[in-house]
Amino acid sequence: PMEGITYRGRTLNECNDQLPKAPGGKVGLPEAAFWLLLTNEIPTDAEVKALNEELHKRSTIPEHVYKLIDGLPKDTHPMTQLSIGLLALQPGSEFGQ
Questions:
Q1: Which member of 14, 26, 60, 81 lies 3.0 to 4.6 Å from 10 by CB, making a disulfide possible if both were Cys?
Q2: Could you list the mean pLDDT of each consecutive 10-residue stretch along the chain, which spans 97 residues?
Q3: Cα–Cα distance between 29 and 23 in angstroms, integer?
């Protein structure tokens, strides 16, 4: 039978049933899906909370990246803008050292 998209062998419906949800939510949290994709494990609520906190700590974008993107022609394709923005983050990357 046709299952459609699967994450680590789980259908989207199975993921929605198994992944942690926001209070009152009906679908799995994106951070929980990311955890599943990386580890092949269903995260606990505490693991999702810790991952979310870590992602927020890393979410600062340097001012030069905003200036660079704002300086692009208005008709620049969004994927090109994304690529340029990501590449502009290299000077501050631990991996670029």
A1: 14
A2: 85 93 94 96 96 93 96 97 95 80
A3: 10
